Amino acid sequence: AGKGSSSEVESNSNETTKTDSKAEVAATQGKYTLKIGTALSENDPLYQALENVFEKNVEEQTNGEVQVEIYSSSQLGSDEDVLEQALVGAGVGIITDPGRLSNYVYDFGVLQAPYIADSYEEVLKLFATDVYKDLCSQIEQQGFNILSFNYYQGERELFTKKPIVEPSDLKGQRIRSSGSQVVTATLEAMGANTTVLAWSEAYQALQQQVIEGVEVHLSAAVGSSMQEVTKYLSFTGHQQLLTALVISDAWMKSLPEEYQTILIDQSYKAGTAASEAVLAKNEEYLRTLKEGGIEVIECNKEAFKEACNIAYETLGYTQIKAKLDAELGR
Amino acid sequence: MIWLGLTFIILLAIGMPIALTVGISALVFFVIENVPVQIVVQKMVSSTQSFSLLAVPFFVLAGNLMNETGITSRLIKFATLVTGHMRGGLAQVSVVLSCLMGGISGSATADAAMESRILGPDMEKRGYSKGFTAAILAMGGLITSTIPPSLGLILYGVTGEVSIGRLFMGGIIPGFLMTVALMFAVAKISKKRSYVKEHEHFPTIKEVLKGLLDNIWALIFPVILIVGIRFGVFTPSEAGAFAVVYAIFVGVFVYKELTFKVMVECLKQTAVDLAVIMFIIICSNAFGYAIVTGRLPQTLANLIIQTSNNKYIVLTIIMIFVFIVGMFMEATANVLLLTPIFLPIITQYGIDPVHFGVMYMILITMGGMTPPIGVTMYTTCSILECPVEKYTKESIPFVGAIVVLLVILAVFPQLVLFLPNLIYGA
Amino acid sequence: MVKKFEELLSKIEISIVCLGLGLLIITVFAAAILRFFGIDMSISTDLAQLTFAWVSFIGADLAMRQNKHMGVDMLVNRFPVKLRNAIFLFNSLLMLAFLLFAVYYGVNLCIINAARKYNTLYISYSFATASCPVGCALMCLTVVKNIVTYVKNFVKNDYSSIEKGEIIA
Ligand code: NA
Ligand code: NA
Question: So where are chain B's domains?
Fold first, then answer.
């Protein structure tokens, strides 16, 4: 239990936790065990990349010395809980987003700020900057280690009960926020009212008219059957959701250096595989949504972009954004 | 994992409170597995950070308030009017009362305790045996906890991430069938032992209508609750807060029986009732982390899957296991510790989590009524000063009636699923 | 002196828990009503959860004072009274160890992860975590009191207090 805090990296929560049918029965002969948590369900492409690439390769290349166990559907706890476990030195990791890391290094949130990037390729560029590297070293001092920050989950769009074309259409609409400062500020800048809810409660809340819309990426929307409880999809693309595999720095340092390298390399590989799978599946997700009765709305993306400028001021990210822009030459 | 189990059993056997038994064995696991022990504290705290779980204090308080607001006494009058002419009249009254209470109260033990205090002495005066009285008053609580609101279904929904709204809808028909089943059992026994009627005449339609009107405040509450949840006026947790406010409103403004002083007493009572449940939940959460990271659910699932491919056989094995564990373990701990293990298995066999949940919670809650260990049983037996042996003997027909009901529910899933599908869509 | 302190403590605890329960009802009910009229009280969830943590942990000691935490005493009750006293003593010592551990690591966790925030309250999550060490510290006092009773029983060779079932612990 203990799913109090909402999860930004949304999971297919309508399905109950499934048992890993091919689970190797507690195979912990290895010297080191890394337990990786995610809010996602087992049929998400990201989970599968973790299993088929990261777990498989790490165990192979370390001759089974490092055992990887992957826990779906927040079985290890909320993202915040697992980060806390990592902080006290447990051999755990979590797939999480910049918004969550901003609790520890506030400026991390800028990587999830609205329209900071317009596509997968562009958002990857952010993670090659010195600004990002500086943030990384700051987070390491806090006790975390980012294996790689390249798990792309898609761009965030609006799913609503009423058609949303302009920011003014969002006036008075209650849209679900994860509660993360970046998300709330973004939604408010776009013109909406926010209601903080766990993602697992969003489906019911929509069904019961507690909220009138959500902002989410396509794979999670399909995972939680948003086509059943909302009518319209506006491609606002206000965020590119790139997530990281974050583990405990203390645990990482306890490994021999060659193993550390293997973990970093394989996490990067798994991230690439996951991102490609998500991109490849986006068409399919969209089809599922349309077949489920979702109508796609031509929205005024430029107007939303314009409206979101205020969010940088609210969040205090104007300076760091300027630094990023300068470095990227835009 | 072995140490976890061993510590657990030993501590349980030497009378350590359940909550601490669970907490200490979890700690032993963490130390042996070399997991940072701060996680024990984290898990203990995070168990309280669930919005859905907030329904628990609310429905405990609402149940406690009912008795002080005049709602309960009116319901008793009505139940007597409707069933008093039957053989074993007062026993029938107690069953119907449990059903009526079910619409507001969510706890089997609270209902059994209240009925033992109010109806118990009168039943003995009418010549019912002590064991029979204790048994039917305890088992009646099962109806209260099956008809929504239900603490057990809330806990199951939270632990298994199953829609609480659907679970509530799913409990309605089984709750009524259970009322019928227990009334049938009472009738049979009463006829054999010629237990007395409360009055001779059949209730007239006019009397019943007047009775309904007198009780309208209590009777419409469950309707408000379900409509409110369905149409998004409130979530199940908020419905709990609403139930409390409603009970206070009726007690102060309609029946004018609730004073400030009584309300404070009620809060104090609730504080302790709640703390007992919550401390078990708190410690179980740390234990749950040990179970999950020890991969116990997968191990057990593999074991069960190897046993059989037939969903009814698997369901039966699980249900028998739950029944036996329920005889010895406290219900709250059972829901929290067993749900993560069994629910994934059940869904793999294509059994609906709402269908399973309703049957499973009936069985787990009944664990509190079956000897040798059971809180509901202890409560009624201690209030009525009834020896457990007598209780045990007299409870057999009622337990039998429930088991028959469970078999029927298992074979006809629609009995559970019809209402949730009707209201929420399939 | 000790008795007076105990009574005071118990009064404070019960007040905190009752006020907490009241606050829970008000926040959750008000949020539902306000939302119905389109006003969002987004802090209500976090505020309620924070309150719930304190109500639960302080309440746990309240229940412990009244011996309400249930255990399985079927087996133990069949033992001779002296052995029973010994088992109760053993259990209480074990409880004390567990609770002291929770106090120590609870405080530790509050400090280590002070950076973790409640989403909408903009205060540290440590305010919730702190409920655990505080509640457990209170329970430590209660358990110590019980331990003293059991030891006294041995010294005086008088077990009437546990025979009457006054202390079940
Ligand atoms: Na009920
Ligand atoms: Na039992």
Answer: 2-424
